[in-house]
Amino acid sequence: MTLGEALSALYARVPLGMRLGLEPMRAACERAGHPERAFAAVHVGGTNGKGSTCAMLASIARASGLRTGLYTSPHLVRFAERIRVDGEPIDDATLTGVLEDALRIGEDLSFFETATLAAFLAFRAAKVDLAVIEVGIGGRLDATSVIPPPRCTAITGVALDHQDKLGDTLDAIAREKAAIARAGVPMVLGRMPEEARRAAIEVATARGARLVEAGGLPPDVVVGLAGAHQRANAQVAWTVAGEIGIDEASRRRGIAEARWPGRLERIEVESGELAGPWILDGAHNPDGAAALVGALASDPPAAVVFGALADKPWREMLAMLREIEAPRFYVAPSGRQPADPRALAEVAPGTPAGSLGDALAAARGTAGDRAVVVCGSLYLVGE
Hints:
- By secondary structure, this protein is an alpha/beta fold.
- The protein is built from 15 helices and 14 strands.
- An 8-stranded mixed β-sheet has the order 4-3-2-5-1-6-7-8, with helices on both faces. A 6-stranded mixed β-sheet has the order 9-10-14-11-12-13, with helices on both faces.
- Strand 11, helix 12 and strand 12 form a beta-alpha-beta unit.
């Protein structure tokens, strides 16, 4: 296969969705010679912040000298971003090979299951010392949960999202996420509402995990990722790294050097009609939108470009973003079914745009040389 052919075959499996259940994945791993057993791992779940926390953990592991794998989802621009070794997306030849193998070995796997198997194959081939693995959805029945007991698990936080699959209460969602807990393995708990914390503790305790509250981050530690909410994520990463024996100097360096594009990322376009400062943030649920609004409170943008997927709680997200007193421009992200920009404008006054290019140009024309924030969907930020 060429890379294009492998990716086309992979995306043909999207209609199976984010299937919850472990048996197909377990069977495929067995046929593949159990690549999931070839490396030590840390397993990170949560509603928001798990990707940023994983990025920090991988950076810490690299700073300590470990050959490190990182598996996350979704990607922003290239599929290879999901599977990284020592901080870099795997190269095209390697990606083609592991995708071809995963597609052949797991003929019945979904898109996400196939991607996960490909990551395991890549990490085995690269002989990584530690793989940092982000849960896809939930935890109990997520494809990543076929790994053997990891060195540590963590939940960054719990909020309402994916209710159609995980339940419509914080209690139910927390129980699904906490089910990545393993007997004798420490589970680090980040900040979360008390209802969710009680449920997570109950599930993790029943599974025999040793519960550890995230904390201990020295006040002078520099967090490389922008936003006050990232300090809470850094606390989780700091605590997990300590639990697996990584020294303080490496933790400090790793957290300071961590980068995670599309999360309160500031870029400067140097020339052309879009020249000026931009803030890109994939806030895709109300909890994420609230964090974005808080991060921008002291220096609000001059315009907002917003787009969301139809199955996301975009009304609640817009209710948060209305606190930013700036013109809004609405656009339909590519990817899955988007929310209609005209429907967005009916909920919170703004200007629907026919394309992302039109929205960006209109927002820049309004903002002048001040910042424009683009938010509401990682698909949108990727574009």
